[in-house]
Amino acid sequence: MPFWRRLPDLLSSAPTQGGDGMNDRTDSASIVDGRMTAAGGTFIQDAAKPLALVADGLVAVSGHDWRDGVLHDAARIEGHARPEGATLARIGQAGPAQDLSLTIRSFPGESAPLLRLSFPAGAQGDLDDRLAAELFLPQPLFADLRKDLSEGRAGRLLLTATTNLWLRDGADDDGPAVFHLAPEADGRPAQAHGRVQGISWRAAEAADPTALAADQPDHESEPPEDPVAEQLRRINWSLKQVLIVLAFLMLIIAIK
């Protein structure tokens, strides 16, 4: 079955207001009525607090791959993303790097874009682990983004998504939100999924010409080099070298 057909099933754990009244367990946590107890704390999911990601360094990649003997389009957009006004964390473990690798793919239809956060295969959970963000866009939206990217109108992308990430219960609402990935379940690496609420992009910000000019040396304001002074400096340097050689010769004669 093509991956895009399984995307709605992957999002079955997206947060809802109030929880579903069911119990569940992970390897190191228990979930009761939408509240998770883990690592000595209580965590909740809040659909009213979406995760915002900002992405840049976008590059269009073309290609194909073969699955089950069938040729598939593997066109995608790659870049880097980071949380905006928030932090990503792991419950009971060292937090991941806040710089995420981003891959944007398309799927048929016009349903809402989808987001998945996961660790690459083989990640060991240390500070070097880098989350991979995958953004799945309906084909028409993906085509618009790719077109604007090729024309220089999509250097920076911003998205907000309702996810199944966890927030510490009772956390200060005034500070930046800290979104937690759930602990591993049944030995499976932690993942998070979400539905995109909004997405926008714009051209990359142009460099400030005044700042660039300030970084450049001002050759015009420097006085012209005096050729006589340059020659005197060269002669002075040569004399110093001769004196050093003479000093070594005198030292050798004294030793003998």
Number of domains: 2
> What characterizes the major β-sheet?
7 strands, mixed, barrel
Query: What is the chain-wise order of helices and strands?
Result: HEEEEEEEEEEEEHEEEEHH
Shape: extended
Q: What's the count of strands?
A: 16
Which regions have little confidence, pLDDT < 50, spanning 5+ residues? 1-6, 10-22
Count of separate DSSP helical elements = 4
Write down the Rg: 29 Å
Fold and architecture overview:
It is a single chain. Helices cover 22% and strands 39% of the residues. The protein is of the alpha+beta class and 256 residues long. It folds into two domains: 200 residues, no CATH class; 31 residues. Strands 5-8-10-12-11-16-13 form a seven-stranded mixed barrel. A hairpin with a 3-residue loop joins β1 and β2. It is extended, with a radius of gyration of 29 Å. The N terminus is likely disordered.
Comma- or semicolon-separated keywords:
2 domains, alpha+beta, 7-stranded mixed barrel, disordered N terminus, 4 helices, 256 residues, 22% helix, 5-stranded antiparallel β-sheet
